[in-house]
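Reopening: structure tokens for the dtdp-4-keto-L-rhamnose complex, inputs below.
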Amino acid sequence: MNYNKSVLITGISGMLGMAVYRHFKQLNSYKIFGISRNKNFRLEGAEILIGDLTSEVFLNSIQSQKFNSIIHCSAEVNVNLCEIEKDLAFKANVYATELIFSILDSDKYIYISTDAVFDGKVGNYTENSFLNPLSYYAETKLLGEGVVKKNVKNHYILRTNIYGFNVPMKKSLFEWGYTELKDSKTINGFSNMYFNPMYVGQLAEIIEKIIVSNIEYGIYNVATNEKISKYDFLLKIKKEFDFSKQYINRIEFNQNDFVAPRALNTTLDNSKIRIAIKDYDFSIDSGFSMLRNDFHSK
Ligand SMILES: NC(=O)C1=CN([C@@H]2O[C@H](COP(=O)(O)OP(=O)(O)OC[C@H]3O[C@@H](n4cnc5c(N)ncnc54)[C@H](OP(=O)(O)O)[C@@H]3O)[C@@H](O)[C@H]2O)C=CC1
Ligand SMILES: Cc1cn([C@H]2C[C@H](O)[C@@H](COP(=O)(O)OP(=O)(O)O[C@H]3O[C@@H](C)C(=O)[C@@H](O)[C@H]3O)O2)c(=O)[nH]c1=O
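Re-run output (same inputs, fresh job):
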């Protein structure tokens, strides 16, 4: 098949990368490229380029390829690990971003950032709110934003907080909550930690809408409309997947139990993206219903 549009997805084997791949694949109108370090990684309908994004040699080897869009989903997302292994975090989240955005050629670039660039003291942050990352992971993601702005004008920086799942399951928030409840374990849910969780399938759809639109380049908060505590989010998982017998302790987050500092209220004001992308359902319930469908058909 001859496609006239191409998209490169970094971190295509990851939670968001796979959701983005699945979305673009079913559109059937894009030539899809993906980058993974895993030599055995294959995906139907995608050309997988094997390499490490921290390798200048690798990126130079694919430099002659021109893409219509690059969606940079790769990162080291283990927040506690980033706090301890700072070199690894810097290389994966800042240096790799510098190489990608300075070496690879594309009409549009998308960088996935995080709500953790804010310190969570007030919440309801806009794109212009005061930035104060608490953890080293969050600091590297913010440094990544700087690298993007420095290298290319035609960029979208999307600050978000996402949930989803990998096959086989890994350790992200939904995966952890689901697995613990399935194994009949009692878990602790933080009642004083707030966010606007967005399902990776929702974010994938929004990314496509951004690419095909001509909305202004820059920073966008891509979050759901509603604020929810992490405790209530876990309760939603319990309800949605019918773990009626399991118990979730409603407790307050205690920083002493965590290696890396965490922010308490990273809720984002999503007005800018809602005005730019009209007629999209930014509700948590819509994301959960997509999750339910994807999870049962996995
Ligand atoms: N998960 C979350 O809760 C949130 C995530 N984000 C952001 O969303 C984005 C996607 O996160 P998510 O999908 O959860 O992450 P995952 O860990 O699921 O996927 C990231 C992928 O990046 C790839 N990768 C990491 N380092 C390298 C490297 N040096 N070279 C090549 N590939 C590399 C890995 O693929 P492989 O091993 O195949 O090479 C991995 O599968 C990230 O930018 C993250 O910061 C933002 C807010 C919340
Ligand atoms: C929310 C929560 C987590 N936990 C435990 C289990 C969970 O795996 C671990 C970490 O929680 P979280 O996944 O919510 O927190 P964290 O690892 O800080 O998640 C972050 O991920 C990175 C990639 C981001 O970019 C951020 O936006 C942020 O959501 O803490 C609880 O015990 N109870 C809870 O209520």
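DSSP finds ten helices and 13 strands in the chain. The longest strand covers residues 105-114. Marking as resolved unless the reporter disagrees.
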